[in-house]
Specification:
Elements: H1 16-23, H2 40-55, E1 59-62, E2 68-72, E3 81-87, H3 100-115, E4 123-129, H4 142-148, H5 153-158, H6 167-173, E5 191-199, H7 204-208, E6 212-218, E7 220-229, E8 233-234, H8 246-263, E9 267-270, E10 274-277, E11 283-284, E12 287-296, H9 299-320, E13 323-332, E14 335-336, H10 339-351, E15 357-361, H11 366-370, E16 376-381, H12 397-417
Parallel strand pairs: 3-4, 3-5, 5-16, 6-15
Antiparallel strand pairs: 1-2, 2-4, 6-14, 6-16, 7-12, 7-13, 8-11, 9-12, 10-12
Helix pairs in contact: 1-3, 3-12, 8-9, 10-12
The structure holds zinc ion.
Length: 420
Amino acid sequence: MRSEADGSMPHDPASLLGRLDTLARCTDGAGVLTRLYLTPAHEAAIRLARGWMQQAGLATRLDAAATLVGRLEGSDPDARTLLIGSHLDTVPDAGRYDGALGILAGLAALERLRDRDIRLPFAVELLAFGDEEGVRFARTLTGSRACAGTLDAALHLASHDAEGITLRDALSAFGCDPDRLGDAAYRPDRVIAYLEPHIEQGPVLEQAALPLGVVTAINAASRFIVTVCGEAGHAGTVPMDSRRDALATAAEMIVATRGAGLAWPGVTATVGQIRAWPGGVNVIAGEVEFSLDLRASTDALRDKACAALFHEWDAITAEHGVTHSIAPGFSASAAPCAEDWQARLERAAIACGLETKRLPSGAGHDAMAMAALCPIAMLFVRCRGGISHNPAESITGQDAELAVDVIVRLLEDLAAEGIR
Ligand SMILES: [Zn+2]
């Protein structure tokens, strides 16, 4: 593993950050943290997390989608179950907090209650999902979709990794029964809510000098592939005023995209990929293909911003005498966090002497899938520089402990509120 990004002393192995350091050693990468779904590193991480859960008195099981579940019984056998979780998988060359923090912060909260001899009336299940990042297979959120009962099993099981191993075979080799994915689904009437603590992955909390944030919604996202068709020609002989330059046109479209993101509050618009043909240094580009990723806090806002941008693009391509087409790709609806749970998190934070900020999540999370099952709530923890998906990902032990304080307080408040 790389040394601590901040150069500080190693964390106490028993502390939350110490456990996250230990978990980061479960990797399939040489010298880097890479933990993909259903790999030996995933198995090692499950073994470690399962051990900690069992030490804390939780009953553990692995569901058919390889989600590790740790259950703490409540005092009322008729009460429903509160779900707390996040994911164990990572992107290649990842940081150690994205995902793992949410699971271990939930566990730390349950340990605190145990140390104070507090028994909750309702059961709590900790969920350690295995496939949030969607790196190994072409599908994503397999574990959380299975829990939510929204998994298209046939579609997911047929997807395969770069080596041609299907998800079905990978699950079987992992000791899971792919034909029992349906059993992983919770009954909506038996679940109270799903809470996901997570690093922010953006700079908003750091800029506001606040350790914690309450998430309002996971943003809606749409992706498109845009093809611009002009006419290839000789860079030296075709006069500037009679060209149909696909690349120059695409450049203006990309500038307009950035403008749309800046003009619409709550919208991000990004072109991250571009290719030009024929790609000669002395040839006017005849065709260009580029990507668009557009996100917004609601589906309606996303669709309005898209429509306005596409209208602007029409004018740009018409002016250049070129044509373009827009092919829709991945699309996800916004997942709003339950208003009453946002208020509960804020009250719990205030009771801990903390000011919080409400903010949307620009990144996707397991909570997105769980929203189909029950109310969702997300607590963000400040991360340094807003950096994630990067070994430089960094949070402070103090902020992590504050998140645990708030979760503990939330659990106590729920019990006092009579939530069953
Ligand atoms: Zn994550």
